[in-house]
Design goal:
The chain is an alpha/beta fold. It has helices spanning 2-7, 10-17, 22-29, 42-50, 63-73, 96-106, 120-128, 154-163; strands spanning 56-58, 81-83, 114-117, 132-136, 146-148. Helices cover 44% and strands 11% of the residues. It has a 3-stranded parallel sheet, with helices on both faces. Strand 1, helix 5 and strand 2 form a beta-alpha-beta unit. The chain is globular. The relative contact order is 0.12.
Length: 165
């Protein structure tokens, strides 16, 4: 918990304060049977299909793990690509450098992006770069642009954002 709170992820803390092989760590923590936790989500697929924007995963995990999660959910084909922890040189959210690297990788300005997260601290650096922020399933909404009760509500908010531009 100390590393997570101080550095954003346990891995980043271990890399800063201990000697750890990042790839060994990532392989170990992501070696789980996802089917015991999640399954296909046709409603999520329908909602994502209705959003006529490029969708990109920005994750503190690996591309392989993110793809496995997306595939189990049945939404893997809805995302253009995954920007993972490796792509941002193991600098994790909420470090602002990770967000700047994300924007460089996708070739976009912050004000062209909508960032959806379930952790408020991971939205704030994106908001500082001009991203429109949507917080999912959280009570504290004062520092973000939009709050929704669940992921399926994101589609309606995105539609309102796009219609207002």
């Amino acid at each position: 918990m100390h590393y997570y709170l101080k550095y954003g992820t346990s891995l980043r803390g271990l890399m800063a304060e201990e000697t750890v092989d990042a790839e060994d760590y990532l392989e170990f923590v992501h070696n789980i049977d996802l089917n015991g936790y999640i399954g296909p989500n046709p409603e999520l697929d329908r909602m994502l299909r209705r959003i006529a924007l490029d969708k990109i995963i920005f994750t503190n995990s690996t591309q392989e793990h993110a793809r496995r999660v997306l595939d189990v959910l049945g939404v893997g084909d809805r995302f253009r690509f995954v920007v993972d922890i490796r792509a941002v040189d193991y600098i994790s959210k909420p470090d602002p450098r990770a967000y700047r690297r994300l924007l460089d990788l996708i070739g976009a300005a912050g004000d062209e992006c909508i960032l959806v997260e379930d952790n408020p601290r991971n939205l704030l650096p994106g908001k500082a770069l001009g991203m429109t922020t949507i917080l999912v399933d959280h009570g504290e909404c004062s520092e973000v642009d939009y709050c929704v009760k669940d992921i399926l509500s994101v589609g309606g908010v995105v539609a309102r954002i796009v219609d207002s531009q």
